[in-house]
Amino acid sequence: MCGIIGIVGREPVADRLVDGLKRMEYRGYDSAGICTLSGGQLVRRRAEGKLANLTREVAEHPAPGEVGIAHTRWATHGAPTEQNAHPHATGEVALVHNGIIENFKPLRDELLALGRKFESETDTEVVVQMLSRHIEEGKSPAEAVRTVLPRLRGAFALAIAFRQDPDMLIGARLGSPLVVGYGEGETYLGSDALALAPLTQDISYLEEGDWVIITREGATIFDVDGNEVERAVTKSGASAAAIEKGNYRHFMQKEIFEQPTVVAQTLRSYVRQLERTVALPQIDFDITSINRVTIVACGTSFYAGMVAKYWFEMFARVPVDIDVASEFRYRDPVLEPGGLALFISQSGETADTLAALRHCKEAGQTIAVVVNVPTSSMAREADLLLPTHAGPEIGVASTKAFTCQLAVLAALAAHFAVKKGRLSKDEERAIVDHLLEAPACLNAALDHDDDIAQMAHLIAPARDVLYLGRGPDYPLAMEGALKLKEISYIHAEGYASGEMKHGPIALIDDHVPVVVLAPSGPLFEKTVSNMQEVRARGGKIVLISDAEGIAEAGEGCMATIEMPKVHPLIAPLVYAVPVQLLAYHVACAKGTDVDQPRNLAKSVTVE
Ligand code: HGA
Prior knowledge:
Layout: E1 3-8, H1 14-23, E2 31-38, E3 41-48, H2 51-60, E4 67-73, E5 88-89, E6 93-101, H3 104-113, H4 125-136, H5 141-148, E7 154-162, E8 169-174, E9 179-182, E10 187-190, E11 202-205, E12 211-215, E13 218-222, E14 228-229, E15 234-235, H6 251-257, H7 259-268, E16 271-272, E17 277-278, E18 292-297, H8 299-316, E19 320-324, H9 325-328, E20 339-345, H10 351-362, E21 366-371, H11 377-381, E22 384-387, H12 400-419, H13 425-446, H14 449-459, E23 464-469, H15 473-488, E24 491-496, E25 513-517, H16 524-535, E26 540-546, H17 547-553, E27 559-563, H18 571-590
Parallel strand pairs: 18-19, 18-20, 20-21, 21-22, 23-24, 23-25, 25-26, 26-27
Antiparallel strand pairs: 1-4, 1-10, 2-3, 2-4, 5-6, 6-7, 7-8, 8-12, 9-10, 9-11, 11-15, 12-13, 13-14, 16-17
Helix pairs in contact: 1-2, 4-5, 7-12, 7-13, 8-12, 8-15, 12-13, 12-18, 13-18, 14-18, 15-18
Subunit structure: Homodimer.
Catalytic activity: D-fructose 6-phosphate + L-glutamine = D-glucosamine 6-phosphate + L-glutamate
Enzyme class: transferase
């Protein structure tokens, strides 16, 4: 989503602001802008589309000054035009915003009635107009902010510059993340620590409702009630190198290939290799009393949760509900005492998931989170934090975060089962052994990259593609379809193999490739029968299976992709690789923008 950066510096900031935006490009955006303070004026430069346009604009019309704010916008209200691009400004105030001001309509009407003129269609502009009104009435910037913030509903991270006070910026957060960074005689605001990585490692995470005045000397932070508060300064550890592509063509490709390493890294925190037992971080609630698990997530994380449902039920015999976060909160779910609510999110900031987490917390559920950013809002609000150690994920289409989530969830389900007395020592050891096989199997799966690249042209011309899987590989079919949709813009659906005959089989003809995920194992025969039903109707099949499966059922397929033979427990991790690579190579064949697919944003911080 939108990236925000603000600098109160000692040297000209325009180039550093644009550089900062470049580091946040991966989040997805459709326009960008900066505003600096210079010669008693607010100097604003904005451009539609990619940052190259803004760079050109700044080169042609420089924005001098040592203090400024900048933004990449992922439009929610109003088309992605220059006019709607942030910063929004009047003569007195310039502001960038991440989030949605949900009550912008009544506020806008109120301001229009006062004769104020709007120049954009955004929700954001009401905040600028409200602040300007108070400034024009003689309030100080801090007083204006203090008056306006309580009137805003929805979610926001704001960075604000004031013409009359050229040596400071004000930031505020409610529902969208914002951090303060401390440099040598400089202070920064940023959407996250990664955005500030080349500037500083010293970071304070603002809490919900906080607002902050930054100057060259440092930051003064206030809480939601306006009391001055201290927020710890921590070393972020975020490295600028983590957001380099290295020798890879795309971040997504780099992240797919990092999976053996990061899954091994993640597993190190969740299994004791020598004892062959699962090991979780300290849990300070009685896990044995948990009688129901509610899993809530969005997108790829939701599919990881679907796989986990199979594991929790199979190992721990505990009932599991699962829902997408955007639906969960609005359907009045039954949350009985003794329930564990489990949230899965790469960023830990996904607005829908975060809102669902807070809803469950209020309903008295124990909260566990699987997140990749251990300093995120979800991490901070959980009773049990289960970090994945995937490292920063830059590609908008999630890959390595997914397999690391699966690794953590498998360990959690097994731990749960052990504590509930549902797994013997031998069974636990077997699970650990299989999990520890995963990194090598992921490597073996990656060895088929060239084969997949070579058959991608068979899929690239398709308008629709179906993916089929059974059992824990059914969520994988949906994940495969999602990956293809996201980056190649081909319409794709994932189905439970057995569901085909209840409707979607009507779609089958020789223009619709059907990708079948069928590791040999207990469900293989059934899936292959469903595959034959497709073939009998002229469907063209891409079979993803191991050598044994391909020998048995590969004949007559349009293509086969061979995977190593793996235990069914780790099949969802290993089979993630070919569906990711297939989507990746199809997108490359079509020439789409793999790392910044159209309309998509990373870390979706609006509801
Ligand atoms: N609602 C604002 C900001 C959008 C946003 O936060 N995107 O990530 C707008 O549409 O400009």
